[in-house]
Amino acid sequence: MFNIGGGEFVLLGLLALLIFGPDQLPKAAAQVGRVLRQLRTMADSARSDIQKGLGPEFKDFDVEDLNPRRFVQKHFWEAGDDGAARRRRPASQLNGKRPPFDSEAT
């Protein structure tokens, strides 16, 4: 969970106990849980509104595809038959020719 180890989690719990006190800690935890639930609900409704607004031609659209890392993985890496990721060949080399190189332009 967020790359937090066991010791760090205990330290955060003790820190929260010191800040809020033993009587206010359950109330604060419940309020944080409510806020997280509301945020998740708002994000899900926004995602569905975007997908409805784009129309049926974008039914496979995933908001996560807008993440640059996911975009690169999706378009430059492909899974082989065995499930292992392989590097795709650049589009410029698909026809067997390399693009012209201009040393002055670089």
From TrEMBL:
It comes from the Bacteria. GO terms for biological process: protein transport. It is found in: Membrane. Coiled coil: none annotated. It is a single-pass membrane protein. NCBIfam families: PRK01371.1-4. This is Sec-independent protein translocase subunit TatB. It comes from Streptomonospora mangrovi. The lineage of its organism: Bacteria, Bacillati, Actinomycetota, Actinomycetes, Streptosporangiales.
